[in-house]
Amino acid sequence: MSGSKDAKTFARSFSHLLKRAVQFSVHSYMLESGKSGLTHRQYTVLSAVDAHEGKSQTELVRITGIDRSTLADLVARLMAQGYLQRRRTKEDARMNAVKLTPVGKKALKTAQSAADDVDKKLLQLLSASDRKMMMDGLTLIAGEMDKIDSEQPVKPSNGKVKLKRRS
Question: Rounded to an integer, what distance in angstroms lies between the CA atom of residue 54 and that of residue 166?
């Protein structure tokens, strides 16, 4: 296949264009957030912890959409930087609840304005009616992922796999 034909195929691929849009969003965030020093994913984790203080790392995986091992690595690095603290939950000693430290709250506040600016700049690329349509479409697609996440197999204490469903 020729390079020109490849480019045309990608230019019409919704999933490819969506990936490129995410890359542009992350790139824009990194340009804006220089003084915060947080990567986009670190910002996402701090923001999720702030909004859902005391939730377990397992719950943060569901909330952020970041896979379990990546989230565990991010939490460990954010703890080493003094942004997060972790403790075992009272309900299940195998689970860790995560909380922002005062330093983490300050870093999040610094990064928040950059994240807000990026959202504004991205949305300004679209007309007002296209913004609404884009947000509605992305919300619909994200909802489909939420359905998949809610049906992930979980192992109860008896060892048998069941599908976890939300009401």
Answer: 21
| Whole-angstrom distance, CA of residue 77 vs CA of residue 107 | 14
Over range 105-111, report the average pLDDT. 92
The pLDDT, as a whole number, for residue 74 is: 95
Q: How far is CA 163 from the centre of its chain?
A: 23
Compute the Cα dihedral for 150, 39, 141, 12 and give only its sign. Answer: negative
pLDDT digits (tens, 9 = 90+) for 48-106: 999 998 888 888 998 998 988 999 999 999 999 999 998 887 777 777 789 999 999 99
Residue 34 to residue 44: CA distance in whole angstroms:
16
Q: Which of 105, 48, 106, 41 is nearest to 73 (CA)?
A: 41
162-163/84-88 β-pairing? unpaired
Q: What are the structural domain ranges in the chain? A: 8-125
Which DSSP helix (H) or strand (E) runs through 86? strand 84-88
Strand-strand pairing, 153-154 and 96-100:
unpaired
Name the nearest CA neighbour of 154 among 167, 165, 142.
165
Higher pLDDT, 154 or 65: 65
Architecture of the domain defined by 8-125: Orthogonal Bundle (1.10)
